[in-house]
Specification:
Layout: H1 3-13, H2 25-28, H3 30-33, H4 40-53, H5 57-64, H6 68-76, E1 83-84, E2 90-91, H7 94-108, H8 114-148, H9 153-160, H10 164-171, H11 179-189, E3 213-216, E4 222-225, E5 234-240, E6 255-262, E7 264-269, E8 273-278, E9 282-286, E10 291-294, E11 301-308
Antiparallel strand pairs: 1-2, 3-4, 4-5, 5-11, 6-9, 6-11, 7-8, 7-10
Helix pairs in contact: 9-10
């Protein structure tokens, strides 16, 4: 063979090929670098899991429809704090992606300035902290109610029409119940949803926003208590995320009143009447009618909900 052809052949076979992103994942995800080389299959599974959990700055920017420089600017002014790999790459997890979506919404839709965005995010963090405290308190309270009645876990779950495993998870504060499930539990334990809140021991006529007690359901519905110590009514601020609702129908004694502050809400009564409530609408109905509700829109619904007497 001609020497020149042999030289070209060797050059062709030894040419370096650019590495694909999957080939450098160990550099992006430091946890993957620590996996034992003697377990290749385990390493492959772990890397795949990490790849679906974390996003790079470029991937995150494409999802949000913004530039990478905007992401870095938000980091520099203290709105976000992404994790870093051992190679100093920025990493964005699903929780941080939700925060970024909220920041973009506050900037583009609400037209808030940077100080306004920081104030709103701070308020949400304080609300989330109260939610955690309330959920951690609700589980033990439900367990105590069940034991005071002498119900085994399986018996209480059967009466509430849920699985024993799900009831156990609620009692251990590892899961949140839907509105319909909470209502069924109140019937089983002969109580009201108010008893699931971490209530103060004394009456409050004035409740500041930062003093509200809050409960959040498994679908993200946030119920904030607006009245403490009332004798005949209970008043709540409901925040219903898009495509969320009661997850079932329920009924009880009394009457209910709703005033829509934002968004829209479908109200179903006995599965025969459907009323679509929009911003500014008011609505009342008898509580002994089977009722369920749902937010059909793509934005959060916010409403004042009043029950009388306190049977919710």
């Amino acid at each position: 063979m001609d020497s020149k052809l042999l030289y070209r052949s060797r050059r062709k076979t030894t040419r370096k090929v650019p590495l694909r992103p999957s080939c450098i994942i160990g550099k992006l995800f430091p946890v993957a670098e620590q996996l034992s080389m003697s377990e290749p299959s385990k390493k492959k599974r772990s890397v795949r899991g990490l790849n679906t959990r974390y996003l790079t700055v470029g991937q995150t920017a494409r999802i949000l429809g913004i530039s990478t420089s905007t992401l870095r600017m938000w980091e520099n002014i203290g709105l976000i704090s992404p994790a870093r790999s051992s190679g100093r790459y920025r990493l964005y997890n699903p929780e941080l992606l939700d925060v970024l979506k909220r920041i973009k919404y506050l900037r583009d839709v609400k037209q808030l300035s940077v100080p306004g965005i920081k104030q709103e995010l701070g308020r949400q963090r304080r609300t989330a902290s109260r939610d955690v405290d309330n959920h951690q308190g609700m589980g033990p309270r439900l367990r105590r109610m069940r034991k005071d009645l002498g119900f085994a876990l399986e018996k209480a779950a059967q009466l509430a029409k849920i699985s024993p495993g799900f009831l156990s998870a609620i009692e251990l504060s590892k899961a949140n119940a839907s509105i319909a499930t909470l209502q069924r539990l109140t019937s089983v334990y002969n109580t009201t949803v108010l008893d699931f809140f971490d209530m103060p021991q004394h009456t409050r006529r004035l409740i500041r926003p930062g003093q509200r007690r809050s409960l959040k359901t498994d679908s993200g519905v946030d119920m904030q208590l607006l009245s403490i110590g009332t004798k005949m009514l209970e008043c709540m601020l409901f925040r219903v995320p898009a495509k969320a609702g009661s997850d079932g129908a329920y009924s009880h004694a009394g009457e209910e009143f709703i005033f829509m502050l934002q968004g829209s809400l479908e109200m179903w009564l006995d599965e025969s009447e459907c009323h679509v409530l929009r911003e500014g609408d008011s609505f009342w109905f008898e509580s002994n009618v089977g009722h369920r509700w749902f937010n059909p829109s793509s934005e959060e619904a916010v409403l004042i909900w009043v029950n009388t007497p306190k049977t919710f």
